[in-house]
Structure formats: structure tokens, C-alpha cells
Specification:
Elements lengths: L2 H19 L6 H8 L3 H7 L3 H25 L4 H22 L4 H11 L1 H22 L5 H16 L7 H19 L9
Helix pairs in contact: 1-2, 1-4, 4-5, 4-7, 5-6, 5-7, 5-8, 5-9, 7-8, 8-9
Amino acid sequence: MSDDERIERILDAAYACFTRHGVRRTTMEDIAREAGMSRPVLYQHVRNKEDAFRRLVARLLDTSLAGARAAAGAPGGLTARLTGVLEAKLGMLAKVWADSPAHAVELLSVDARLSAEPIAAYDAAMRELLASVVTAERPDADAAELAELLLAFTRGLEADLSDPDAPARRLRRGVELFAAGLDRSPTAPKEHS
């Protein structure tokens, strides 16, 4: 097994343990047992539980960003592409909530404290991605401002993921409203009758 495969196995085990027991109650012994390896082998790949958590968060963010980039480049209009980008973000958090209703709040609040740098980089990449989608469709729009508004809107939806269908439904409707507002803004191209 390669080092990369071992790290993936460790991160899978860490996710299983964190969602089952919570971050605070999970031990390195738990992660090693779940990964099917000894603690000394585990420590060859991650320094401690916090390191495993940071790497896991980075992997989740990378996966979400890859999905967002694919959605940004997919065929469809502005609303569909923006919705797809934001669904990748919302979907990542909804998965954590679904996998661990008992520990989701802990998992989602801990990552802000332990993983501020990758989260900041992820947020910046999402802002740039959203702005690029807007600019491609509406070059005269204030793309940076709209990207910030869309991210703030999505963060609001992330506050309550207890109903798995409501946030995605509200996201789609909210993006429709944002896009409709762009069509009516003073900088939007005028349609001729």
C-alpha cells in the first residue's frame, strides 16, 4: 500500500470516528483501529488527532471545490451554474450533518477553529468561481458583490441542515431570485420587444 493510499485510509477512518464519537471523544487509538493499522504506523502519517482533522477538512473542501468547478463549467444558464456551484458547498455540509446528526454541530464548529487557513482559501476560491460565472454571463454586473451575497445567503442556509431537503430547495429558489434581480438591475442589458 502506498503512502497516499494509507493517508486516504486514515482520513476515511478519522471521518468514521469523528462522525461516530465526535472530535473531542475520538482518540488516535480509535482512528488506528478503524484504519486497521497500529498506532506507530498511524503516527508515521499524521502527527496527532488535530492533524488528521485538518487533513480531513482539506480533503472535504477540495472535493467540494472540484464539484463546484465542474458545476461552473457545466452547460446551462446563469441560475443553473450558480446553483450547481453553491450546491457543492451546501452538499458537503449536508453530508456531514446526515452522517452525524449527534456530532454535526461539533464537527462543523471545530473545523473553523482548527482549519482556518484551508477554510479561508476555500472561501476565496468559491468567491472567485462564483464571480467568474457571473462575469461570463453578465459582464456589466458587480460580480464580486454578487458572489459575496450568494456566499452569505448559502451560509445562512447552512445554519439549519436538520431538514435535508429544505436548504437545497431554498438555495435553488434564492439563486433564481438573485439572477432575476440581475436581469432587472440598471446595468442589465435591455431586452427589445
